[in-house]
Write a structure and sequence with these properties.
By secondary structure, the protein is mainly beta. It contains 4 helices and 29 strands.
Length: about 475
């Protein structure tokens, strides 16, 4: 397998061969010239790469669904739904995958964790990656300096006497849905599915393991703060003892882990009245944003920001507001990837909080700035035809890497000069392509064609009140 610029499809990812787009109408709500004026930053794809479809996926195109930037910003850990884990070299984009210290761009050298559900890079060692499994309920630590396909450490909670909840809880395998590691790599935390009416937030001390490399001894667990699947766990970037969690029960919780028990540790329980997909800590004071706040993206593509110090909701952005900031016509097509920090173009030093957004119709990827209680157009990705599955912003080099549903990995740099004519030409051409596509696209009776089914996940129960 080899990689090269603009060469086929990615070697890392899930299977989605011949990606089927939702039949949904969505287009720009303004003229190309006004779009150019509204979006000050223009991102162009400087390189893209991939490989042939993998035989393990039946010849279908693979797609990366999880990613995380390491601390030195020279590697991105990538996770695949078939369980493969690999590293993308951000400084050498034409060599997409680093499978091991000795062999580059060889998929068989990728580590594998069955039914991979989450991954995160070490906060102290750029070569270490943690992954979680929804199959066996384990967390694996991978050292990419070693020419081995085996994990360095494996953490599990099965059979632990530190698990509470129902009588059978300690004997059950708890599928893990999310994972994070604290600053300093001292504590691992993972959230589980709801099993036998119990869902857990699990904690391990990374330093506690036996001679065989098993870290089976839990520090402890919480099981009373959420009543459904725990879908997100996120440590504070500077304070190892603060943890935020989110769930399909609609609650966004924050904890102080230094407290002796779960009741005392729970600082705030925010009712999102939705289903939490991802969490982002915001610790820089920008404009009118609180000095310390939590932002979350819901499975209904809403974005909420909460004051983590006072416990108040600061702002809520719904789909119509997000679609308006994207300057698109159909709110039901607005898709939020997640929240990101990005450098301001004005000075290249200060940061802004924003949203990477796409249209579910495809052909539209834009960065929306969060300016206090307002959303503002900020960045437009030129000639982006696919929906972004996951992405990473690289601050030091001020560029993006996107992992798209078509299997292509793309590197994006910001244009320094005004490229209004190019933006207008690209958007006008895309509109004509969309019209031609609609005329030739076969009809479908799939339920996913109904705009009301475009929510990425329905809530399964009523939400708890604050």
């Amino acid at each position: 397998m080899s990689g090269g610029e603009k060469s086929g499809v990615s070697s890392i990812g899930t299977l989605l061969g011949g990606v089927k787009r939702l039949k949904i109408d969505d287009q720009d709500s303004s003229t190309p010239s006004r779009l150019n004026d509204a979006f000050p930053n223009h991102w162009t794809s400087t390189s893209s790469w991939g490989s042939s479809p993998s035989p393990s996926t039946g010849g279908k195109l693979p797609i990366t669904i999880y990613s995380d930037l390491n601390l030195t910003e020279d590697r991105i850990a990538c996770g695949v739904s078939n369980g493969s884990i690999a590293l993308v070299d951000t400084s050498r984009p034409t060599l997409p995958i680093t499978g091991s210290a000795k062999g580059a761009a060889k998929l068989p050298l990728c580590r594998t964790h069955r039914k991979l559900s989450s991954l995160v890079c070490s906060k102290t060692r750029p070569e270490l990656v943690y992954s979680a499994s929804a199959k066996d309920g384990t967390v694996c630590l991978w050292d990419f300096r070693l020419d081995t396909l085996q994990p360095t450490l494996t953490f599990s909670a099965s059979g632990s006497s530190r698990i509470g909840g129902s009588e059978s809880a300690s004997k059950r395998v708890r599928p893990l849905l999310c994972l994070d590691v604290s600053p300093g790599d001292q504590v691992l935390s993972a959230g589980t599915e709801l099993v036998d009416e119990d869902s857990f937030i699990l904690f391990w001390d990374v330093r506690m393991n036996d001679d065989a490399g098993n870290g089976d001894k839990l520090l402890g667990a919480y099981w009373e703060s959420h009543s459904d699947d725990v879908t997100a766990v996120k440590f504070h970037p500077d304070k190892f003892n603060f943890l935020a969690t989110g769930s399909t029960d609609g609650l966004l919780n924050s904890f102080n882990l230094l407290e002796a028990n779960e009741d005392d540790a729970l600082l705030y329980s925010f009712n999102t009245e939705s289903s939490v997909e991802s969490i982002h800590w915001n610790t820089n004071t920008i404009g009118s944003l609180p000095a310390s706040c939590l932002s979350c993206v819901t499975h209904c593509n809403q974005v909420q920001i909460w004051d983590a110090d006072r416990g108040d909701k600061f702002v809520n952005f719904d789909r119509p507001q997000i679609s308006k900031a994207m300057m698109r016509s159909n709110p039901e097509a607005a898709f939020v990837n997640r929240c990101y920090w990005q450098k301001e173009r004005t000075n290249g030093v200060s940061s802004m909080l924003g949203l990477l957004t796409c249209s579910l119709k495809g052909g539209c990827t834009r960065f929306i700035k969060i300016d206090g209680e307002k959303l503002e157009p900020n960045g437009i990705f030129l000639n982006q035809n696919a929906i972004v599955q996951t992405a990473e912003y690289i601050p030091n080099s001020n560029k993006w890497l996107t992992f798209d549903e078509d299997g292509i990995v793309r590197a994006w740099n910001m244009e320094e000069s005004n490229c209004g004519d190019e933006v207008e030409t690209i958007i006008t051409k895309r509109r004509k392509t969309d019209v031609d596509h609609e005329l030739t696209k076969p009809s479908s009776k799939n339920s996913s064609d109904n705009p009301s089914s475009l929510m990425r996940r329905d809530m399964s129960r009523r939400k708890k009140k604050l």
